[in-house]
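> example.struct
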């Protein structure tokens, strides 16, 4: 009789993990996955009909060596409970056998049951599992679904998932990499809570876990009208070896990876709506971020305090960089600002002490206050002919900066814009006429600056960094 369920067992060496590339993402990007309140998964309707996967249970029971099990056919929660039992039996008989479970082609499975009250559900305590690839039929992942899978190194969660409950991956101490949709808000009565990354690992300590305090936001509504919100804090316990994350979804929530200091690489697949405020704040171990070419904005403090981040390349789709977006990234040595950016916000690169050069593209019209303040290694800056305004203390304390060319387009230079630039010896104005200094935005009480004097680049440098550094400069 023809079998409806087929699977292939392939002997492998389990030394390598997933390649975190956007081309491997399952399904299309969703608007985001949501956690679920009180550690319980949302009620979803599982597909009905007979399971045709019973053979996989017997195969697991008969395993004598490490294998990849690639399954297809109809699955159900009941069948997963049987697989759970078989995996636990295998662990008792031979704890050294490693199992990779590829469910990417199975059908009928829409939910991983919560294991909060029953550890026989989903993959809870399946200690032989080293990798799981879930099908794109899955919509919800219940609480503690992978709890104490102590050898699990990699998990791929498809973009179809809209709910991941609290503590779903609690105790997964060996987890090294994940692919998952971004969380969105959790609806509960009259509030919506935007839980951070740590939520899916839970607040229960375990040996080796990295205690991570994260901030998140709760919005309050009355008759579906927003009436206010509050910032909350929780301490979550993350796997110590979790370094690489691939994320899907159109928006990366505010504060989602806040304070996740052990993560070193983020690959963003999607992100067309942008990267939220504080999204990667204080990710002190983050060395590399791949920003997609459809992201349109980088929020306030998005990468602030990422002290190991060495380089950033922004695609042309990025049009806005928020205040403090890269402030205090003390290892950031190079940055490519996209041609779509129109303004560089307040303190955007302040305190980037290893940044040596920067080119402001033609699309930028404004360099915000303290944008590059304290960039003590900045020796070269190219200001494009599109810039009209340089803000207060924009380059203050850039002690290695030696020369600046001011294009014709610049009409405003804020107070102390170049104060403390002790090595600045040459400022070349493309147009030295009609320049004044005075009180802030005071166009009627200013003092004219002699055009011939300003034409001397050394004198112009002295005026900007010292003599008239505390004045607002403007051109009429």
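> example.seq
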């Amino acid at each position: 009789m023809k079998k409806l369920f087929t699977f292939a067992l392939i002997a492998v060496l389990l030394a390598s993990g997933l390649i975190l590339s956007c081309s491997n993402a399952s399904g299309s990007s969703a608007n985001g996955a949501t956690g679920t309140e009180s550690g319980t998964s949302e009620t979803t309707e599982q597909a009905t009909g007979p399971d045709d996967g019973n053979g996989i249970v017997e195969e697991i029971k008969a395993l004598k060596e490490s294998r990849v099990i690639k399954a297809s056919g109809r699955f159900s929660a009941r069948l997963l409970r049987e697989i759970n039992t078989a995996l636990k039996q295998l662990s008792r008989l031979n704890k050294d056998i490693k199992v990779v479970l590829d469910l990417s082609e199975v059908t009928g499975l829409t939910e991983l049951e919560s294991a909060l009250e029953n550890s026989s559900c989903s993959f809870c305590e399946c200690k032989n599992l080293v990798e799981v690839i879930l099908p794109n039929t899955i919509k919800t992942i219940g609480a503690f679904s992978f709890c104490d899978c102590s050898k699990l190194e990699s998990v791929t969660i498809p973009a179809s998932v809209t709910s991941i409950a609290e503590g779903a991956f609690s105790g997964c101490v060996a987890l090294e990499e994940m692919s998952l949709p971004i969380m969105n808000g959790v609806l509960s009565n009259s509030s919506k809570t935007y839980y951070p990354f740590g939520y899916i690992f839970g607040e229960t300590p375990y040996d080796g876990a990295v205690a991570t305090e994260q901030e998140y936001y709760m919005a309050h509504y009355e008759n579906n009208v927003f009436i206010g919100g509050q910032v909350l804090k929780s301490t979550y316990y993350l796997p110590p070896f979790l370094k690489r994350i691939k994320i899907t979804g159109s928006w990366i929530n505010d504060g989602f990876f806040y304070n996740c200091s052990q993560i070193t690489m983020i690959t963003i697949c999607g992100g067309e709506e942008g990267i939220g405020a504080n999204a990667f704040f204080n990710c002190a171990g983050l060395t590399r971020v791949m920003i997609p070419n459809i992201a349109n904005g980088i929020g306030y403090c998005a990468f602030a305090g990422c002290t190991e981040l060495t380089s950033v390349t922004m695609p042309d789709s990025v049009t806005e960089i928020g205040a403090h977006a890269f402030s205090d990234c003390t290892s950031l040595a190079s940055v490519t600002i996209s041609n779509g950016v129109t303004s560089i916000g307040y303190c955007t690169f302040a305190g980037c002490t290893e940044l040596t050069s920067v080119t402001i593209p033609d699309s930028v019209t404004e360099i915000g206050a303290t944008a590059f303040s304290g960039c003590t290694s900045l020796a070269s800056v190219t200001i494009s002919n599109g810039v009209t305004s340089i803000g207060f203390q924009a380059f203050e304390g850039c002690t290695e900066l030696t020369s600046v060319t001011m294009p014709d387009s610049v009409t405003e230079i804020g107070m102390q814009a170049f104060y403390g630039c002790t090595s600045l010896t040459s400022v070349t104005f493309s147009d030295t006429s009609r320049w004044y200094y005075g009180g802030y935005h005071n166009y009627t009480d200013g003092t004219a600056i002699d055009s011939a004097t300003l034409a001397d680049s050394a004198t112009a440098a002295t005026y900007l960094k010292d003599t008239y550094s505390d004045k607002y400069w403007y051109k009429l």
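> remarks
Confidence is low (pLDDT under 50) at residues 1-20, 24-34, 36-50.
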